[in-house]
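haha ok so turns out i had the wrong file open the whole time. this is the CORRECT one, sorry everyone. sequence first:
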Amino acid sequence: MTKKEIISTILAVIVLNSCNNGKQDGSGGLNGRPDVCPNVKTVKAVLSNRQEELTLTGKVEYDPDKIINYAPLINGVVERTYFSLGDKVQKGQVLFDIRSTELTQLQADLTSLKSEEKIAERELKTAESLFESKMLSERELLEAQAQLNQCRAALQKTEMDMSMYGYNRVSGTFSVKSPMAGYVVHKNTSSGSTIAEGSDIVFTIADLSRVWIVANVYAGDLQFVSEGMEVEITTLSYPDEVFSGKINTLSQVFDPEEKVLKARIFMDNKDLKFKPEMSVIVKLKNEKTIHLVSIPSAALIFDDNRYFVVVENSPNEYKIREVTLQGHHDRITYISSGLSEGEMVVVENQLLIFTGLKEK
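then structure:
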């Protein structure tokens, strides 16, 4: 006896024993009703709305409307930094002190312009007094007023320039303050380091009370994803917690490097559970109006790259039926062809019955 014949004989014995020595009928089915074969269990195929569940990978990103980058506008040396990466910063707190010859020159110009403003004010008062005494022409009075206005404009410009670079502490030293409350999410400087105009960003402050969840949508999944869809978000950091949201925007341009579209989900983050660059899993659920026959996924038999089920045609008769799948969701499989509503499908010991019928 060959190896194949031995295996077939053993399987046949197992099937017969499992079904309490049931007999085969003349139609080619395998005898075995629940009262004769108690280990066989069937369920009815039902018609239901198709539900789809798509799983996407993604990560947490900053909300670009709640982030401030500070890049050097001048050349100088950092004298001291006050915060480290991850620290919380309040609006107006000093991030770092900088000493710069450019700022020293601006400070000197500011002092000079303030002196010129005082002189111009005195000259205008004198001109107004002389004009009232008719000892000065109107033209000369207007010239004195224009001189004061010009001096004040130059002074205001210098003060604005200095405010862009920082708050003046002492001669030549300026303090750069945070323009918003948030967290230090990037720091690229330290005490004693030099910075130059146009160089890389030295500080980034982000308000993390709201973040973006950015999910990757591949071309093959695009048909199942749309704006407004409800999503469930899970992370490795909080395995027992599910966060709910919806897709707010869906990019219309593929990322040239990752070859994906980006789906953005705006999430409130008051508890700061979502950290920038944290990996997340995004599940999308979409209930279609398409009605399909559905059965428990456990009833499926995969053989020779095809799917089958065992159907109870009538009492004491089982048949193998090839089916075409339409999708899966929550342990339910949707069938597009091969099975009709109301048919009884074997969900327990179906593999033994399938093997016995196939070997006939």
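The first strand starts at residue 41 and ends at 44.
again sry for the mixup
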